[in-house]
Amino acid sequence: MTKLLRSWVESANSAETPFPLNNLPYGVFSTGGGAPRCGTAIGDQVLDLAAMEADGKLSFDGTLQTGSWNAFMGSGKANWSKLRETLTDMLGDGGDESLATYLVPLAEAELHMPFAVSEYTDFYAGKHHAFNVGTMFRGPENALPPNWLHIPIGYNGRASSVVLSGTEVIRPNGQLKGPDDEMPRFGPSQRFDIELEMGAVVGTPSNGPISVAEAFENIFGYVLLNDWSARDIQAWEYMPLGPFQAKATATTISPWIVTAAALEPFRTSTPEREKPLLDYLTEPGPMLYDIDLSVTIRPEGGAETVLTNTNLNVMYYSAAQQLAHHTTSGCPMRVGDLLGSGTISGPTKESRGSLLELSWGGKEPITLEGGETRKFIEDGDTLTLKGAARGAGFQVGFGDCVGQIKPARPL
Question: What's the pLDDT at 411?
Fold first, then answer.
């Protein structure tokens, strides 16, 4: 198992920090109302990479001056490796401690969107989630659609709805129609939900079909992703084309891009196939990751309750398979494209990644620490996604992915 890489930044050597030297995630921050700038988290600090480049300590053609990671991602894999190797040397034991002048306490930093989202596609690639949802609506015999074991199902979402952790989420309005209603009505969603997901960030563009191996190499890194979902709006609108307004409220991502390079030691294989995949979807090696994931809920003024604990390694399709499939029609992929994994649910009730599953469609309310119950999210609730790959005495974390629900806007 990979060991902790020690740093002269002492807080980076703690087993509790999500940001040891092994990680070096990329984000965008500002201080004192200044302009957003590129940085990397190390322990309880953020290293100001924009200032370092401006002072000649780093040289990446000005891509670290843009207040976004898109330009750097688009500069190519050679630069991805060069920056990571340079920072590892600079921040490691025996490195350049004079760089302490470029450190800013994370507690004093305001975080911003780490990249501009070019396009957003959400998949439905978790078998346990798909089986649970299908069982609720079609019964266990027909839970999975006939194509599910053959193809990564997805839909094109709204890049404009992707927001940073900490952004308030307004309960959506929409058309609602219950099974016994003669006519639809318009109003706030009453079955508002989360979906625990990972997001893959495309760093290398493509124009035409690419292989799974190429797709794996084209992914720059990963974020936690909460695909907020209005289940009642979706139930009425999805016939026959699929999700639309039910998924357009917000998609919250964590503030740091954890690079594929940082996650390399945690690679694992997708589960054994129930039916053979077509050749173009075959993985040449392990392309999934062993990442522990959890979700908590906290009512306004109340105590926090753990809703679920699961792991990314239960996913049936990897991000590389999803990306490769996305390109088969000739669809160009851009720097900054974001791919949602689909809801990550494990095989047990305690590992389900949505309230729809946890409350079994509202039939089995969840009791919170303070004695309240939940079928779905109520106004004032704060939902927090956490994730970390765990090594020997260290963890590679993402930073929390947080959103609080606010009441719907009257129309």
Answer: 81
pTM over 0.70: yes
- Strand 169-170 versus strand 401-406 pairing type: parallel
Instruction: Quote the pLDDT of residue 1.
Output: 62
How far apart are the C-alpha atoms of 31 and 171, rounded to whole Å?
Answer: 31
Q: DSSP string covering 228-266, please? A: -EEHHHHHHH-TTT--SGGG-S-EEE-S-BEEHHHHGGG
Query: DSSP string covering 181-204, please?
Result: -SS-EEEE-SSEE--EEEEEEE-S
| Type of residue found at 255 | P
Task: Report all structural domains of the chain as residue ranges with CATH numbers, in order of start.
Answer: 10-112 (2.30.30.230), 120-406 (3.90.850.10)
pLDDT along the chain (411 residues), means of 10: 92 98 98 96 98 98 97 98 98 97 98 98 96 94 95 96 98 94 96 98 98 98 98 93 93 98 98 96 97 98 98 98 98 98 97 98 97 98 98 97 97 81
Rounded CA-CA distance 162/138 in Å is 31
pLDDT at site 230: 98
Tokens for 341? Answer: 């994994």
What per-residue confidence (pLDDT) applies to 241?
Answer: 86
For residue 77, the number of C-alpha atoms closer than 13 Å in the C-beta half-sphere is: 13
Q: Are strands 366-367 and 37-42 parallel, antiparallel or unpaired?
A: unpaired
Task: Give the span between the Cα atoms of 357 and 345, in whole angstroms.
Answer: 9
User: Pick from 169, 171, 199: which is nearest to 315 by CA?
Assistant: 199
Bridge partners (DSSP) listed for residue 378: none
- Is residue 128 among the annotated active site residues? no
| Residues 6 or more apart whose Cβ sits within 8 Å of residue 59 | 53
Catalytic residue among 129, 150, 325, 326: 129
What was the pLDDT predicted at 179?
87
